[in-house]
Amino acid sequence: MSVREKIQNFESLTLIPEAAFSKNSLGRKIREDDDEIRTCYMLDRDRIIQSKSFRRLKHKTQVYIKTFGDHYRTRLTHTLEVSQVARNIGVGIGLNENLIEAIALGHDLGHVAFAHNGEEVLNEYLKDGFRHNEQSVRVVTKLENNGLGLNLTEEVINGILNHSGLGTIKDIITLEGIVVKYSDKMAYLNHDIDDSIRAGLLSIEQIPKEIVKVLGDNSNQRLNTLIKDFVKTSNENLMNGIRVVGLSKEINEAMIELRQFMFKNIYLGDTLKVERNKAKFILEQLIKHFEENPNQMPEIYLRIAENEDLQRAVADYIAGMSDDYCLSLFNKIFVPKVVID
């Protein structure tokens, strides 16, 4: 018996019947031989961590553009916090932790530089629009590994595709994917409040008192409330034969209200408007430059331009850039250099 088979047997002993068992995976688009040690979801997790797109997350903005403080979140630390929250929930319910981790680590690979500002620019640029969850799937299926993709399992790809927003969960094929969808919101709401307070742009007193009363007045309290409620509510549903995981009505409504508060006051508020406009200007100039000079893009994007179209290729190239790389490229292309005779 291989190590992988032992792990799969352990899954059958420890996970709830509604969990996604690795031995029953829907598989990959291109069939592969089983790994001797790792289950399919463990292999997916490792491929994501080893990808270039994952490494670039460390220099992609979460909310605050080009913040030099060491303690502000980046897209990478956000991803790790989502994984932490989701795994805690998954273990509490009895779901497949390896599948949860793979989805969580891959969910934001398609995010653009300069936080949601970059997404807005590309959404206006592409004729069919741009959504970072769809771009994350494009990264793992078409862009990574020099265009070959990572050949991930269907369950991981589905979880990545459907993680965004607070809308319907009917298209998510695993409970693990639903856990990551909720955990994404739990993580970013809490750490973005922390970062906003650290930046002096928000005070705890500004958060509506009815939300504080339900969720708590600091990050630890809020996360504890959300995680414990999710586990408790989900376990009660499952024990009663209801295949639903999620938050109780009261806690879910409080989280939605907190999300609306953050969008109004921080994400889309006037506080960061000047910096958002600067970021959009940089991205718009780079898009225009590479549309006019496509041969300056790497070979993989020239192939995309040939096989799909130039607009798609430019969008893929821009979407993969980190904040630092965008700034460096902008300076190289547009900022005059000092010439000494």
UniProtKB/TrEMBL annotation:
Gene it is expressed from: dgt
Native organism taxonomy: Bacteria, Bacillati, Bacillota, Clostridia, Eubacteriales
GO molecular function annotation: dGTPase activity
Keywords: Hydrolase
EC number of the protein: 3.1.5.1
Protein name in UniProt: Deoxyguanosinetriphosphate triphosphohydrolase
This protein's record includes keyword Hydrolase: yes
Keyword Hydrolase (UniProt): yes
NCBIfam families, sorted: PRK01286.1-2 (NF002327), PRK01286.1-4 (NF002329)
Provenance organism: Clostridium chromiireducens
Domain HD: 75-189
Pfam families given in the database record: HD, HD_assoc
CDD domains listed in its UniProt record: HDc
Domain of life: Bacteria
